[in-house]
Structure formats: structure tokens, C-alpha cells
Amino acid sequence: MTVTHPGLARTAALDCLFVRPGDDGRARTAGRHVLGRVTYGHGGRPPQLHDGAPLARMAMAAADDERITEVWTTDRPVRHGRDGGLVYAEDGEHFLCAVRIEEQDVYRDTVRAVYEAAFTLMWRLGYTELLRMWNLVGAITGRNGEGMENYQDFCVGRAQAFESWSGRIPGMPAATGIGSLRPGIDLYFLACRDGRARHLENPRQTPAHRYPDRYGPKSPSFARATLLEPADGSRPVLYVSGTASIIGDDTVHPGDVERQCAVTLANIQALVAPDNLRRHGLAGGFRLADLDCVKVYVRDAEDLPAVRAHCAKALGAGPDIAFFNVDVCRPDLLVEIEGICR
Ligand SMILES: C=C(O[C@@H]1C=C(C(=O)O)C=C[C@H]1O)C(=O)O
């Protein structure tokens, strides 16, 4: 991890924290400007503007399960707005946008149209680099009206949008594509100005956009991580995509949640390590202990205690970790982990 002033690790220009019921959210964001709030909770609602920033309510927790609000803050004043179904905020360096796609019989055309509308909006406002995307897909491994998995259907529309914008938006960012607890697709993402984002792959895994077509007609459009190098020289921040027990392009240890946890964490360790950043021509690097704002997605509720224990042992008491009992993008994946290194 690199800091701009030895001994004074400045708060990142763009920051994230988890606020839980009972926390004093205002105290925890004092002195900062809110770019957006995303609640991983019950029920879910389309995104709206609330208290001067986008608020997206995601159906990610059953009634008596843990819920969090992920709050994105910045050290710069924020302007917000709405463009059709797109709710957004921006601070001159960073852009956050949220949008919901209601349940469709077949998703690909709507996904493409919504992604292209989002790209058009961010481009019009001068944010030309995607930083991190989250796609929460109801019944992610369920079937659409044509019998295709909803996730594969989603990937087709997303890939078509990236293909049509490939000359204007360089590369594909870190992302998460995970199940949610309600039909439809909830999407939110971060973007930044030109030249601030560097996308990384993982030496242990096939780049997702090069997956063979046995996983779907169009491969997933995301990188394994994205490094943000802020304009103000504050410390770089590494956004780690949802990561699972996949070596190469194969799921490993089907049916064994402990070993899937171990492979997932080993994948993240290799991804964020100085060797891998150096492989991409970047200085610095991180360790598992640098992960924060960790979200752990567990397919089967009965595996939650074991996964909690495994993550506590591997990540220690430092990071803020939230656990969610939702489906993963492949039926044989039992756990997935994402986070932010800073
Ligand atoms: C777990 C994987 O993919 C998941 C799906 C993603 C997407 O489609 O955007 C991104 C990361 C993960 O949430 C993987 O392919 O390794």
C-alpha cells in the first residue's frame, strides 16, 4: 500500500463504508460528501434521489438477516440528477449511477439498452472510465423464457453494449454479478475521469471475457480488479471483483464449501499481490489483510457459520465484512467474495 505522506495515510478521495442498523451514519460520514447509498437489505425498491444522493435499495437479505447500507463518500461537493430510470451523482472526479431493470421474459435487449443509456450518460458528463460495476440478478441461475440461464442472458446484453462502446470506453472494469432476492436486475456502478483506472487480471484464472462458450453464448464482461489512481495523488485503491472457486475457467471443489473458500481467498491473494500489480506495470500491492468493505455471498444458508469462521480466520478482525445468503452466478459455486484494498 502506498501513502502520499509517510505516517499520514490520507482518506481516499472516494471512500466506502458499511452502515448497519443502529450505527450513526451521519457521524461516520461527517466532513465528507455522500455520492450514493446502496442498501443490501429487504424487499428492494427502484433507485431514487434521497438526501441529495442516489439511494438504491437491493433485496439481498431475508427479513431477519443482516442488512447494511454501503455508503460511498467523496471529499468533493456532489451534484446529483436523474436521466430517465438512471439516478446518478458526480463530484467532478467520480460518478455513481444506479438503475433497475424490471423482470423480463428475456433480458438481453433491455440489458443492452440500459447499459448503453448508462454509458451515454457517463460519457456526456465526461466520465470515460468505468471503475466498478455491480449487477444483482434475481433468479440468476433460473431460466428465462427461452430456457437460457438468466445470467447467460444478462451477459449477452452486457457484452453487446461493451462491444458497441469499445472505442469510447476503454476496457471492462471490476464487477460483481450475483443473485438477488427479487426478480429483475439491479445495477449500480462507479466511473471516473480518463486515465485514472487500470484493469487487472488474475494469473490463476482465465480472463472472464475469454471464457469458453460452454458458459454461455457471450462471455462475462469484467476484469478481476480495477486500480483507481486518484487525481489528487492520494493512495491508490484496488477494487476486487466478486471472486469464487474458479481456477482457469473451471469451478473447483464442487460441493465443498471450505475448499471453495480457501481457493477463493487464494485467488484474491494472488490478484492483489505486488507480483501481479508488477505484471501489469503497476507499483505497490496489497495483502489479504488490506481488504475492507468485504461482501461474502453464500449460496446455502447452512454454510454461513463455516464461511464466517473461515473468513474471520483468513481476514482477521480488521475488515468490515457483510455476509449474504444469495445464489452465485454458477450453480456449482457455493461462495463468492469481493472487497476493496486500500
Ligand atoms: C465469480 C465469477 O463471476 C461473477 C460474475 C461477475 C459478472 O458477471 O460481472 C463478476 C464477478 C463475479 O461476481 C467468475 O466468473 O469468476
Write up what this structure looks like.
With 342 residues, the chain is an alpha+beta fold. It has a single domain, classed as RutC-like (60s Ribosomal Protein L30, Chain: A). The strands form 4 sheets. Strands 6-7-8-11-9-10 form a 6-stranded mixed sheet, with helices on one face. Strands 12-13-14-19-17-18 form a 6-stranded mixed sheet, covered by helices on one side. Strands 1-5-2-4-3 form a 5-stranded mixed sheet, with no helix packed on it. The structure holds the ligand C=C(O[C@@H]1C=C(C(=O)O)C=C[C@H]1O)C(=O)O. The ligand C=C(O[C@@H]1C=C(C(=O)O)C=C[C@H]1O)C(=O)O binds next to β10 and β14.
- Which CATH architecture would you pick? 2-Layer Sandwich
Give the CA-based shape: globular
Regarding CATH, which class?
Alpha Beta
Main sheet: strands, sense, barrel: 6 strands, mixed
The ordered H/E elements are EHEEEEEEEHEHEEEEEEEHHEHEE
Mean pLDDT: 94
What distance lies between the first and last C-alpha atoms, to the nearest angstrom? 7 Å
Radius of gyration: 18 Å
According to CATH, the homologous superfamily is RutC-like
Low-confidence segments: 1-10
Placed side by side, the strands forming the largest sheet appear as: 6-7-8-11-9-10
Structural class: alpha+beta
Distinct helical segment count: 6
Number of strands: 19
Number of structural units classed as domains? 1
Stated plainly, the CATH topology is called: 60s Ribosomal Protein L30, Chain: A
Helix content bin:
10-25%
Q: What share of the residues does DSSP label as strand, in percent? A: 25-35%
Hetero groups:
ligand ISJ
